[in-house]
Design goal:
- This protein is mainly α.
- It is built from three helices and no strands.
Length: 70
């Protein structure tokens, strides 16, 4: 707790909050705009799939169901 109070006093926590807010805003606004325009984007699908997990439609449907049950 002592280190937390030092970080708050020096302004480090405010900077951390600021940069996280900027990152969330820059990544969230385009997703909201796409959704409002009626795109075919599914919730949570940001098009980032470096391992190719969504290449098999049957496996993708199963993983989506597992995630919804989680």
């Amino acid at each position: 707790m002592k280190l937390h109070n030092v970080a708050v006093g020096q302004g480090a926590m405010q900077q951390l909050f600021l940069w996280i807010t900027v990152l969330e805003t820059l990544t969230g606004i385009p997703a909201i705009i796409q959704t409002l325009k009626g795109s075919e984007r599914q919730p949570g699908d940001f098009g980032f799939d470096p391992l190719g997990c969504g290449s098999n439609p049957e496996q993708l449907a199963r993983r989506q169901l597992v995630e919804l049950k989680n």
